[in-house]
Amino acid sequence: MNTSEFQILSVLAKEKNMRKAAERLFVSQPALSQRLQSIEKSWSTKIFIRTQKGLLITPAGEKIVEFSEEVLAKDAKVREEITSLDKEVYGTLKIAVATIIGQYWLPKVLKKFIQKYPNAKVSLVTGWSSDIVKSLYEDEVHVGIIRGNPEWKGVKKHLLKDNLYLVDTEIEELSDLEHTERPFIQFKSDSTYYQEIQVWWHKKFQSPPKRTIVVDQIETCKQMALNGIGYAILPSITLQDDYENIKKIPLEEDDVSQLHRDTWLIGYESAFQLKQVQAFMEIVTDYQKSTNQ
């Protein structure tokens, strides 16, 4: 039996009259009578008995009509849930994010996303930009957020630009770097980050830093600089709080521009057709407007 046949039995049980049932179902009486005979044949039992006063439901018919009502109720509920899927955001949003963005930018955006779309789930991985691009190529994530200026032929949205600063407790001018004995504290990052810094350094100075310390995480690098162990070059996204006794010197490329890092959101066009991805993009756009990024 299909849904229309369950509907026929439900209407017949309520109306207990072939003419009235036919009118409600927008069919002729002969057609309705023929459909009823076909249904009874499929069940191998009589469901209704015709009398002068109308239709009388049989004991077997009561069971079948009760089953029909259950099926129709379940059908209506599922259809309602499917309709709500078109309005609500479900599914899992899979994101791969550059570590620094995952630490300093993404939490505020994800908080807004989760608050607005509580039925959606989030799968998040962090790493270097090269790993994120690989995850996209292998179809492991929907969108990636990377640092630098990627060569990407799919969807590519600029998220933010943050300037680079030399951070230290003692150095007051960039020219001090030529003769300081203080160590340059570096953190492990993708190759393009320090390539840009090295190019900038060689334009400004004749020789490399005299001493260096390399740490695994950018947060460790920042804390060492804040505690006066040495100087570091950090993006402004990590320096949003006010720090006492810390000097922030912009890394000027020339008289009008400053060395900076760009952050991009990338992905394939097909992923941006998913509701959870579209919803995330709306949150990102709203957040950019509110923070003037």
Give a written overview of the molecule.
With 293 residues, this protein is α/β, with parallel strands linked by helices. The protein has 10 helices and 11 strands. The chain has helices at 3-15, 18-25, 29-43, 59-87, 99-104, 106-116, 129-137, 191-204, 218-226, 275-291; strands at residues 48-51, 54-57, 92-98, 121-127, 143-147, 155-168, 184-187, 212-215, 231-235, 247-250, 260-267. Strands 3, 4, 5, 6, 7, 8, 9, 10 and 11 form a 9-stranded mixed sheet that branches. A two-stranded antiparallel ribbon has the order 1-2. β7, α8 (191-204) and β8 form a beta-alpha-beta unit. α1 (3-15) crosses α2 and α1 packs across α4. The longest helix has 29 residues, at 59-87. The protein starts with a helix and ends with a helix. The mean pLDDT is 90.
Number of strand segments: 11
Residue fraction in strands: 15-25%
Percentage of residues assigned to helices:
40-55%
Q: C-alpha Rg, in Å?
A: 34 Å
Order of helices and strands: HHHEEHEHHEHEEEHEHEEEH
Number of contiguous helices: 10
Which runs of at least 5 residues are low in confidence (pLDDT < 50)?
Answer: none
Overall morphology: rod-shaped
From the N-terminal CA to the C-terminal CA, the straight-line distance is 59 Å
Please state the structural category. alpha/beta
What do the pLDDT scores average to? 90
Biggest sheet statistics:
9 strands, mixed
